[in-house]
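Duplicate of earlier report; Transglycosylase input re-posted below.
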Amino acid sequence: MGILWTIIIGFIAGVIAKFIMPGDNEPSGFILTTILGIVGAFVATYLGQALGWYSPGEGAGLIGAVVGAIIVLFVYGLFAGRQQRSI
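Output:
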């Protein structure tokens, strides 16, 4: 049930992150938004557990997932920007 909850929160976080940090290099579409949010939620969960903010087995909340999705979106923008400039 924990992974399902992370997917749901991740999707919502992905949508919010795209509204907070719009740009030309961002992924578009329903599936990529969902993947962005899910990866962001997992990043926030594991980063929070490593820093001691969350106990083992505890997932990141919506705010943590949004922050994780913004980090993933920023990193994606860096790599997507490099690929467009080099072509």
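The mean pLDDT is 76.

Merging into the original ticket.
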